[in-house]
Amino acid sequence: MCRVCGGPVRQFFDFGRQPLSDAFVDPDRVDEEYFYRLAVGTCESCGMAQLLDEVDRDRMFHDAYPYHSSGSVHMRRHFEQTAGRLSGEHLRGPDPFVVEIGCNDGVMLRALAKEGLRHLGVEPSGGVAELARLQGVRVRTEFFEEATAARIVAADGPADLVYSANTICHIPYLDSVFRGLDTLLAPDGAFVFEDPYLGDILERTAFDQIYDEHFYFFTVRSVQAAAARFGFEVVDVERLPVHGGELRYTLKRVGRQTPSRAVAELAAEEERRGLDTPEVLDRFAAGVERVRTELTELLRKLRADGKRIVGYGATAKSATVTNFCGIGPDSIDWVCDVTPAKHGKLMPGSHIPVRPTEALTEPYPDYALLFAWNHAEEITAKERLFRESGGRWIVYVPEVRVI
Questions:
Q1: Which of 315, 306, 332 is nearest to 379 (CA)?
Q2: Which of 50, 155, 180, 403 might form a disulfide with 149, Cβ 3.0–4.6 angstroms?
Q3: Cα–Cα distance between 268 and 280 in angstroms, integer?
Q4: What is the reported pLDDT for 16?
Q5: What is the CATH architecture of 279-402?
Q6: Whole-angstrom Cα distance, residue 144 to residue 324?
Q7: What pLDDT digit, counting tens, does each position of 81-91 carry?
Q8: 74, 41 Cβ separation under 8 angstroms
Q9: Per-residue DSSP letters for 190-212?
Q10: Cβ pair 217, 49 in contact under 8 A
């Protein structure tokens, strides 16, 4: 049953038994790992793509949550530019107030804080919330829902802007989120959020975007349908190149702003492409199976030829790839990552060791499987010497190839 409208949901892929994507494992605690079924479907009534099984939010977002939004130079630049855009477009009145849902380590809000703007981050993961505070960002360490919004209004008054990046798709209870927005936003306030776009996921066969934290996979049409149930409408939409393809949606209460042409144009494009039709979704499923076959065969052949292979980027996405494709320490020696909290631990489910990125040089391997493909340009530039030493990158989005 659809979590948004209650309609019937048609499953279009089942990735089987999966671990929590960001639950990196202590080597002496592998027996305590939590698993769940990762299956995805689309509502036949409102078109919302969603997971069929929900993982308890406290299992995913907690004090030890390891993802840092500021970990990438490219993403830091993106959020700094976003702060400037938001300030110019939505925070121009007297004493404006902005709230960010899922502020993580405060990479976006700290730019607004430096301008002296009233702000508040809402972040349930205590470790990254504390990093935000150290950057001068005000943070409430809790999940955002209707009750949270009421507490914020009582303490700080209504918000001119509520912003969120890569977070709204994590929240199954959209009804409480929208009721919270209705409570929190000023009459002409805007809700701006950006999340992975189903259209890009399907087009690129980017199946690793599907994991426990990503409960919803939005389109313009499905967001329009969800928003309408709570008195909101999509008034603008913008394509973003980050994280392999996202959309930035701007919502306001119905009648407060005439929707831009971009909204109607992209909704019409989605209808032409049939993003929620069985034919398109079944074609995606066939593509996922093809990538699995080609990737595992390539790794097997390279290993048989005596090649050293490592992984690059211990991402949440990589949990889906390694566990669905059966990639373990027998396929790749280890995975390197920039996040210190992951070093010395094992990849979820696959139990591949995680090492610092400096390990790539000790000595350079023959191949590196690029799990963090959405940061390919930044990573390949940083690791230029790997390529010059004769190393080759393996990628699997949109298809398996060696570069």
A1: 315
A2: 180
A3: 16
A4: 97
A5: 3-Layer(aba) Sandwich (3.40)
A6: 32
A7: 999 999 999 99
A8: no
A9: EEEEEEEBHHHHHHHT-GGG-ST
A10: yes
**Tokens 């996979």 map to which residue?**
217
Residue 121: how many other CB atoms lie within 10 Å: 27
Class of domain 69-263: alpha beta
Cα 155 from chain centroid (whole Å): 30
Domain ranges of the chain: 9-51, 69-263, 279-402
End-to-end Cα distance, the chain: 43
Choose among 330, 370, 364, 366: nearest CA to 350.
330
8-state DSSP, 242: G
Burial of residue 182 (CB within 10 Å: 0-12, 13-18, 19+) is: middle
Sequence-distant (≥ 6) Cβ neighbours of residue 155 within 8 angstroms:
none
Number of Cα atoms under 13 Å in the Cβ half of residue 360:
27
Fold match between 69-263 and 279-402?
yes
183-192 pLDDT, tens per residue? 999 999 999 9
User: Mean pLDDT over all residues of the chain?
Assistant: 97
Distance from C-alpha of 110 to C-alpha of 119, rounded to nearest angstrom: 9
Strands (E), 107-204: 118-122, 139-140, 159-165, 185-196
Is 172 within 8 Å of 215 (Cβ atoms)? yes
Phi, psi of 246 (to 5 degrees): -130, 165
CA 50 to CA 65: how far, in whole Å?
23
CA dihedral 260, 96, 92, 89 (to 10 degrees): -30
**What span, in angstroms and rounded, lies between the C-alpha atoms of 130 and 141?**
9
pTM above 0.90, yes or no: yes
Element (H, E) at 251: strand 246-253
